[in-house]
User: Fold Polyprenyl synthetase from Pyrolobus fumarii.
Amino acid sequence: MTCEKRLLELWRRAKRLLDERLSEVVERLPETEAIDVARYIVAGGKRLRGFTTLLVAEGLGGSWEDAVEAAVAVELVHSASLAIDDVIDGDVTRRGGPAAWLKFGPGRAVMVANLLISYAQKMLLERYGFRAVERSVIAWFDISRGEVRDAYMEEGGEYTEIVRLKTGSLFRLAAELGAVAARAPQSVMRRIGEYGELMGIAYQLADDVVDYLRGERGASISRLLAWLGYPHDVLSTVIAKLREILATIDGIVRDMVAGTFAPLLSSLPRFVVKAMFSEAGVSRLVL
Amino acid sequence: MTCEKRLLELWRRAKRLLDERLSEVVERLPETEAIDVARYIVAGGKRLRGFTTLLVAEGLGGSWEDAVEAAVAVELVHSASLAIDDVIDGDVTRRGGPAAWLKFGPGRAVMVANLLISYAQKMLLERYGFRAVERSVIAWFDISRGEVRDAYMEEGGEYTEIVRLKTGSLFRLAAELGAVAARAPQSVMRRIGEYGELMGIAYQLADDVVDYLRGERGASISRLLAWLGYPHDVLSTVIAKLREILATIDGIVRDMVAGTFAPLLSSLPRFVVKAMFSEAGVSRLVL
Assistant:
């Protein structure tokens, strides 16, 4: 079986597992009044960040069962951040339906999203201890910083820095928590964190170029174009950048992971970027 | 000098110190675009929670300098929570001026408040390590839970539980962090946490009875009246409850703190409740 086919199969399995565990966590919320909103906020994601946590844990000698609560925590934070972002940006659709704030009001959306984020933090604390909480505190500070920069900076050459804060930091956390769940040493966790961050940057780059191709022209597109140097052919230029990033990631994996799992971790970032493109209807790209 | 006079003097000093340090922290934010909003969000508080952290630290053998970053973190979280609450509840005034969301828009208010909360968490992590982060994660989960219950539950006998989650947990954290800063043993931290929680409950009770006296009749007033058993004279009934709580607190302090500092820690809850009453123009109450 090719790596890509194997990843697709694993991802489907991971998605089922994460959907199931996320539901269980939400239904167990002590604030039963908030369960409807919480269920809506967590529904419908691709679970690529949680999948990253599971695969990294397995690649470093742990099991999915070791890592599943970390993966669930990452997906909780991701879903909750999107719900808050939509309030901040006034976006009306999310994951193919109306944004949570449109259905339940901005107050309830923000309130339940904040509940989910602190719930995720508590899960990490209780299940994995200091290292997991430390990484998540740093990641959440970076995510908040990225959000502020993204919303406030109108133009400017900061494209990669904003993307690193906004998307790179959560993929970094996803990978780091996989290492924590597998009880990997600190040096391995740091290196796999870089792997995750680069994957996040590649993912966001794909996301932004899709927006560009659809005709969007907001501040982040301006930043993207400025960073690329206003090329004639934006898509080809982005694909060249993506190939560069993916080659760097390959180098990290080769350095780090031995055995039969290395090809899967090496293929994962490519898989994640393609999942982004194919969700947007842009397929048949050779990366 | 009476205890009360001494506390007033210490509180003025603490307020100056905390105002100064909060300003420094805000001006150092790496997201310079957010500084205006952040400055507005943190301005104008009584700093009673941060004062609690400083006094507890000193009472347990530490110094204000050991504890000041913890006190600042508690005040950052408190101010940020208020800014988010105002968005959720649609409240238009705060600390004698327009709410942050009215001045800067709800999106920016929520975004910068979340930035301040994660910044506070990172300060605690870097300065005090695991114990401080652990306590704050648990407190922030409880605060989020309290907010959801407060906003969703229309009536019901849950008054003390909601108050414990909503206000008790942050005062508890304020006291616990004072113990952490003074490197007190775990058992002392737990006991001083109970002291803080009871102080928070007394504070909220005072806050709610002031709202009642002003003619407000929202869900939390209904819960308060139900809990009190719909008495003829609400103020006297609340004062009797406050006296009970303050007596329990006295017992905890007598058990725990020896030496010249005990009377100050014993008077602090009374001082905090009176500061609440006197800010609301209700003075000359004998507690």
